[in-house]
Amino acid sequence: MHDDDRSGAVPFKEAPLRKDGTEKVRGTARYIADVRYPGMLYGATLRTRLPGGTVVSIDFDENIAWDEYVVVTAKDIPGVNAVKMIEQDQPVLVEAQYRHAGEPVMLVAHRDPQALGTALAAIRIEERACDEGPVFTIEEALRPMTRQIVAGNVYRDYCMEKGSVARALGEPCHVFEGEYQTGAQEHLYIEPQGMIARVEEGVLTVEGSLQCPYYVHAALVSMTGLSADQVRVLQCATGGAFGGKEEYPSHIACHAALLSLKAGGRPVALIYQRAEDMAVTPKRHPSRTRVRLGADGNGRLRFIDIDFVIDGGAYLTLSPVVLSRGMIHAAGPYRCDHVRVRGRAVATSHPPFGAFRGFGAPQSIFALETAMDGLARTLGMPPEVLRARNVLVPGDLSPAGQGIEGPLDMHRVMEEALEASQYHAKVARCRQWNAQGQASRRGMGIATFYHGAGFTGNGELALRSRAGLRVSAGGLVEILTSTTEMGQGMQTTLSEIVAEALQIPYEGVCVARPDTRDVPNSGPTVASRTCMVVGRILAQAAYKLIARLRAGAALPSAYDYDEFCAACARLHASGDVATVMADYQHPVDSQWDESTFQGSPYRSFAWACYVAEVEVDTTTGEARVLDFTAVQEVGRVVHPTVAAGQIEGGVVQGIGYALFEEVHFGTDGQMANNRVTNYIIPTSADVPPIRVLFQESRAGAGPGGAAGIGELPMDGPAPAIINAINAALGTEIRHVPAMPEHILAAMDRGHL
Amino acid sequence: MTVSCRFTVNGSPVYGHFAPMRRLLDVVRAECGLTATKEGCGEGECGSCAVLLDGALVNSCLVPIAEVDGREVTTLEGLRTDDPLFAAFAASGGTQCGICTPGMIMAARALLNDCPHPDLSEIRRALSGNLCRCTGYTGIYAAIRAAAGQGGE
Amino acid sequence: MSWHAPRNLDEALALLAERPGLVPFAGGTDLMVGRQTPACGRQYLSLARLTVLRGVRETASGVAIGALTTMTEIGCHPYVCRDLPALAASARATGAIAIQNRATLAGNIMNGSPAADNPPALLAYGAEVVLMSAAGSRRVPYEDFHGGYKQTVCRPGEILTEILVPVPPPGARHYFRKVGARRAQAISKVSLAALLVGRPGSWECVRFGFASVAPIPILARTLAVAITGSDRGLPDDAELAIALSRDIMPRDDIRSTADYRRRVAMNLVREALAPWTRQGGSNASA
Ligand SMILES: Cc1cc2nc3c(=O)[nH]c(=O)nc-3n(C[C@@H](O)[C@@H](O)[C@H](O)COP(=O)(O)OP(=O)(O)OC[C@H]3O[C@@H](n4cnc5c(N)ncnc54)[C@H](O)[C@@H]3O)c2cc1C
Ligand code: FES
Ligand code: FES
Question: What values do phi and psi take at A600, rounded to 5?
Answer without folding.
Answer: -110, 95
